[in-house]
Each structure stands twice: as C-alpha cells, then as structure tokens.
Write a structure and sequence with these properties.
The protein is an alpha/beta fold. Helix content is about 55%, strand content about 15%.
Amino acid sequence: MSIRVFIADDQEMVRVGFGLILAAEKDIEVVGEAADGAAAIEGIGRLRPDVALLDIRMPLLDGLEVTARVAGSTAVVVVTTFGDDTYVDTALAAGAVGFIVKDSGPQLLVSAVRAAARGDALISPELTLPLLRRRAAASAPVVGPDLLARLSDRELDVARLVAQGRTNAEIAGELYVALSTVKTHLARIQQRLEVRNRVEIAAVTWRRGAVE
C-alpha cells in the first residue's frame, strides 16, 4: 500500500518540485496540496493522508499552528528554508515527527516521508545533534544517578544510537538486528528509564555522559 502524502507550501514551484520527487517513488502517492495553512487543515482533515509535509511560513495559518492541529491524526514533517533552533523545538513540541530544511536534497525528503510513515523521526543531520544537546541540557527528566544501569548492554547500545540521531532502521542496520527487535528494545528502554519518547531517551543518555 502506498504512503499517502499531503504537501502544504505557499510556493507553487516547491509544491510541484516535491510532488515530482515523491511521485517518482513506487511506494509514495501525493494525494493533495495547499498553498496556505487554512487550506492545509481542511485538506488534511478531508483526505486523511499518512504524512503531511508542511512549510512554516504560510498565509492565514503558519505551519507550526497547522502541525499542532493535525499531528494527532497525521504524521507531520516540517520542511522549511529556516533551520532556526526555535522553529525546530516548537515544531517538535507541537507534534511533528520530522524536520528537514529544503536544501537537504531529494533523498532526505523521501527518507523523511518513509520514516514518518513508519513512526520514526527524521531530522536534517545538521540539526540533530544540536537538538539533542539542547534537550539534554534543558528538558531531560530528573533521574537518579544509576538510571542507565537499569539497561542491558544491548539496550544501552540502542539508547546511545538514539542519542546520536539514528532512525530505527539505521539502528537495526548498525546492530545487525531486525527492525522489530529495535522497537522492542525502545519500548523496554522507555519503561526502564521512565521516559515517554526517543527524545527523552536521548536526553537521559546525553546527560549521563554515555555519548561521546
């Protein structure tokens, strides 16, 4: 079954370009587009795409507001010219699962769509480590000093790779395990570290000095 994608950007050339890139992939189908935030909310609500690609600066409603309204039902990847730290943090807090800059290239765009459809997060490489360091410094849960000791050696390996910005598929490849095994490890890590998601896993791992 194809991944159904909705594109929202106020520039027609961007919408057309993204559409051509994605239409060339056998497993991706572009089902709709919008030039402003209000039309994006209407189209996403009506078409129920698997993934929405949203620009930040759009008329009527910006992409951050749209993200906050639709992220509960559609996986959102913010695609923008602006890789500003505040935009990244706000988009992720609003529920986006990905954030890439427009000059990242076609391959990363396609990878971000596939990652979002799988439930993974993908962020432009140049933004990933700064994001994790900010989260580690500012928003990691308050935990005891021996928290990482709760993890097995393999779970610690997975946590370290999450902290380095790896997707589930990349972790599976590096550790030579099945993708389902990685997801099982992540569920156990979240339970043992008493955190809610992979960003908090990364934050704990950074704060405990387990990542070089």
